[in-house]
Design goal:
Shape: elongated
Number of domains: 2
Number of helices: 3
Keywords: Signal
Distance between the termini: 49 Å
Number of strands: 8
Largest sheet: 5 strands, mixed, barrel
Strand content: 35-45%
Order of helices and strands: HHHEEEEEEEE
Strand order of the largest sheet: 1-2-5-8-7
Protein name: Lipoprotein
């Protein structure tokens, strides 16, 4: 009876370890076959976004560029047509702090306005490499608790008029 239990436990342990090893091997293979990142307004399939026609606006090539070039990064607290409130993220060399989901309205926020000339893009970011792929978006993709990076000009009253809004999505 003891031998049967010992064999059963050993077999279960072996199966568990072999499944764990197979799972990590597949993850490693997926990271190696990532498609190339598209930047500078180029979209998958060779299409150019609307900004390419209006002065060939360049989009950041990686996560570091997105964070460095943005005038504001944070989480959307409130959204109305033509403007939204953003709770700024706090970042240092090692960490980034965002508002907890659902708590945005209780924190200090900055008003961001946008016009018809503002462009919206979803930035699909590879968490491992920081490479970015862009796809077209609209203002309707911005919702409460959405993470955003804002590019534009700060007005005298402290509000920001956005020229471009990136919505980061991490893979």
């Amino acid at each position: 009876m003891k031998k049967i239990k010992l064999v059963g436990v050993t077999l279960a342990l072996f199966c568990t370890l072999s499944m764990a090893a197979c799972g990590s091997t597949q993850t490693g293979q997926e990271n190696q076959s990532e498609p190339p990142a598209y930047s500078q307004g180029e979209m998958p399939g060779g299409n150019k976004d609307a900004d390419a026609e209006k002065g060939k606006e360049e989009l950041p090539g990686n996560l570091d560029d997105i964070e460095a070039e943005a005038i504001l990064g944070g989480s959307v607290a409130e959204f109305q047509d033509g403007s939204f409130q953003v709770v700024p993220m706090e970042a240092d060399a090692q960490t980034t702090k965002l508002a907890a989901s659902g708590m945005e309205s209780t924190l200090e926020s900055i008003t961001v306005s946008y016009g018809d000339d503002c462009t919206f893009h979803i930035a699909n970011i590879n968490s491992a490499t920081g490479a970015v792929e862009f796809e077209a978006a609209t203002s309707s993709d911005v919702k409460k608790s959405t993470s955003v990076y804002i590019y534009g000009e700060t007005q005298d009253d402290g509000t920001i008029h956005a020229a471009k809004v990136l919505l980061p999505r991490y893979k």
